[in-house]
Amino acid sequence: FSETRYVNAHIDYEEKKSLSRNVHRLHRLPNDKLRIYRNLENDGILQEDSAGSHTIKVNVSDVAGNISCLSFKLNIKGIQPGSPSPGNQSSLLMKFDEEARFYNKKVQVEVPAGALFENIEFSFKESPRSNGFLSENYHIHSPHTPLFKTYTLSVIAPEVAPELRDKLVFVTYDTEEKKVASLGGTYSNGRVIARLRSFGEYAVSLDTIAPEIIPIKGSASADQSGRKALRFIIRDDISDIAKYEGYVDMRWVLFEYDPKNDLLTYTFDNDRISPNSDHELELYVSDSQGNVNLYHTTFSW
């Protein structure tokens, strides 16, 4: 389990993100520490002096010993080492085995040693604010570059009322879900700070809206006779669900949360509540920014 994220170095991560295809590399990236490799020679990397004609064979076998072979000729004119792109003033070389930092007047990016799988030419740019965000859009390198560890993003906080500073969060636009998603964040000394697991396009916004609590399949009915459980959809348009607590007749009861389906369920328990009587339900749901919603009702069961 501790090695799972190294799979992002074994595959062509950009191909996975852009086209949803699992393409295996035939070479090992410098910080790929998966223990699956055997008999490596120069990590599968062709040398600069490999010019000429070569025969390439790729053998793939299954557990039953059946083998498929692909063979072809590769003509190499010469391999040129990579060089930084000229004229990009907001880029710098980040080495995978060294701590790296990028900063300007607004933004600081701190990448710990071992977070990258290979050296990169880190890039940064800003674009005008959009989607009602409170800051410009900050393009932190590329979402097609995988990371093994989190990095720290810190930006100058927008001007908001002091009581709203704790509601400032980093957000991004999820193109698959077609909605704004929160990445969390904390306010400290005039800056919004968060630890993130991926590069991408981020901005700062406010999250002041409490989660939704929606009763489903008769759970809002005043008469719950014969029913086995109360069921609710709980969700938050920006932040994650952080906490939920339910009380029946002012006594704590166990609610079970299925985050994949946004489903919160309380199964009626004779040891907790008395049957054939009236009851009062209080359900509190809060998000990661401390916004709390209360669902209150009375029912008979």
Care to describe what's here?
This protein is mainly β and 301 residues long. 4% of the residues lie in helices and 43% in strands. The chain contains two helices and 21 strands. It has helices at residues 7-10, 13-19; strands at residues 52-61, 67-76, 91-94, 100-103, 107-111, 120-127, 137-140, 151-156, 168-174, 179-184, 186-188, 191-196, 200-206, 212-215, 229-235, 241-248, 251-253, 256-258, 263-267, 278-287, 292-300. The strands form five sheets. Strands 3-6-7-13-9-10 form a six-stranded antiparallel β-sheet, with no helix packed on it. A five-stranded antiparallel β-sheet has the order 4-5-8-12-11, with no helix packed on it. It has a four-stranded antiparallel β-sheet with strand order 14-15-19-18, with no helix packed on it. Strand 16 and strand 17 (251-253) form a beta hairpin. The two termini are 45 Å apart.
